Each structure stands twice: as C-alpha cells, then as structure tokens.
C-alpha cells in the first residue's frame, strides 16, 4: 500500500507540473508538451481499466479547466490512453506483470521496451489531441509537424519522469 500512496503523491505532482507547463512554458505553435500519458501509463496495474479511465478523465479535466483554454481537450485525448494502457503493457512487457501485480520499471524491463511504451502512448494522446484541436481546419503538413515535434518533446520529458512514476525496487 505504501507504493500506491507514494505513486499518488507523484501522480498529483505530475498533474501540477503539467499545469505549470501549460501555463508558463508555451514553446511554439508546433510543440504541445504533455507528460500526462506517461502518468496514466504508470497507474498501478491492480487498478482496472475503468478506474484508470476515470482518473485520466479527471486529470484531463483538471488540466483543461486550470490551464488550457479548450475545456475537454486533454480529457478527450487522455481517456483512450487509459483505455489501451493494460493491453499495451501486456503486449510490450508480457503477462507476468499482471500475475505478480507488479509495476514496470526501466531497470527490470529494459529501456527499449519502456521507450516503446512511452512513444506509443504519447503518439495516441497527441493524435487524438491534434485531430480534435484542429478539427480538420489545418493542413495535414501542419498537423504532422506538430505531432512530430510534440512527440519528440513529450517523449524526452516522459523519460525524465518515468523514474519517479515507475521507481526501481530497493
């Protein structure tokens, strides 16, 4: 239970960091920096998909209403990330994490697998976010450039946070 308590503190701090990023670190119109997908990816596996989707929705709404100008956009993009979380973890890390009800970490599962999971979750989040934000009004090249730049920035930021959200066993 101690790990879950520590995780929820780290998760809350991640939401606060995302709020600060949205309010004070606007890099460019091409870059939308988000660390929310990695936070949802690291929700403990003993919680079900429905609970993860509720947490993702509440987290997205908090960021939408306290930072971003478009209500519901982060929530809309974060719920599919929570929906696919268990399936993605099962495909990349294997069934043994669910049997042990253990979280994943870079040290135990390897950097390439964790990086792949982060990239897939960031891509899913950004694809939904950019498609809903543009609503077909922007040209494809702009959306593709925004996706690529945001994916690079978000992946780097997520790699910095994965050690806090998915700690190593001591």
Give the helix/strand layout.
Elements: H1 2-24, H2 36-41, H3 49-66, H4 73-93, H5 96-100, H6 106-109, H7 111-134, H8 140-165
Helix pairs in contact: 1-3, 3-4, 4-7, 7-8
Polypeptide structure, described:
It is a single chain. The protein is mostly helical. 75% of the residues lie in helices and 0% in strands. Helix 3 packs antiparallel against helix 4 and helix 4 runs antiparallel to helix 7. The longest helix has 26 residues. The two termini are 16 Å apart. The mean pLDDT is 86.
Task: Specify the biggest β-sheet.
Answer: none
CATH architecture type? Orthogonal Bundle
What Rg do the Cα atoms give? 15 Å
What is the terminal separation in angstroms? 16 Å
The helix/strand class is mainly alpha
Along the chain, the helix and strand elements come as HHHHHHHH
Strand content: under 5%
What is this entry, summarized?
The protein is mostly helical.
List keywords for this structure.
170 residues; mainly alpha; Arp2/3 complex 21 kDa subunit ARPC3; 0% strand; globular
